[in-house]
Amino acid sequence: MSRLRDNRWVLPASLVVTLMLGLLPLPTLLQPLRPYWLALVLAYWVIEAPERVGLGLAFASGIIADLLYGGLLGEQALRLTILAFILQRFRARIRFFPMSQQMLAIGGLLLNDRIISAVIHVLVGEPTLPWAYWWAPLLGMALWPLVFVLLDAVRFGRRGR
Fold it and tell me: Where along the chain do its domains lie?
């Protein structure tokens, strides 16, 4: 049994915060660089607490995000469910990767997410995102260590010393 106590409130609070981060307005120049916060936080939870987070929560979070952001209904739900499925499949390996390899894995998943989004937009006849939006997965990959360490610290109640 772990001596660290898992704070149960952190999961719903982190999801609410990430949904709110997606609503923050950004200048037009920075808009393409907005990281997919919801995917980063869900990735953390799927890797670290698979007994609490699975495909159902990923789908529900995606539907809520679709409703909040006004996109195609079900697009983010599908994208997040695919992300969660891949993470569940390879969780045992990814969890024990060094942080640099975890960053690459998350970057690959975020790039895969961007490809799925582009395919969905083409299939339904929506305009595709400009090329500048393909930089966001790189920023998400770079932010992964910060997200991981921050959520770990809040989840287990650790403070910086």
Answer: 10-156
* 20-23 long-range contacts, CB within 8 A, separation 24+: 22/65, 22/68, 22/69, 23/68, 23/69
- Structure letter (DSSP) for residue 5: P
One DSSP character per residue, 104-122 reads: HHHHHHHHHHHHHHHHHHH
Comparing C-alpha atoms, which of 49, 36, 48 is closest to residue 109? 36
Tell me the backbone φ, ψ of residue 35, rounded to 5 degrees. -70, 155
Average pLDDT over residues 129-158: 91
Alpha helices in the chain (DSSP H): 10-23, 37-48, 55-69, 75-94, 99-124, 136-156
Q: Quick: pLDDT tens for 103-114.
A: 999 999 999 999
Distance between CA atoms of 38 and 141, rounded to whole angstroms? 13
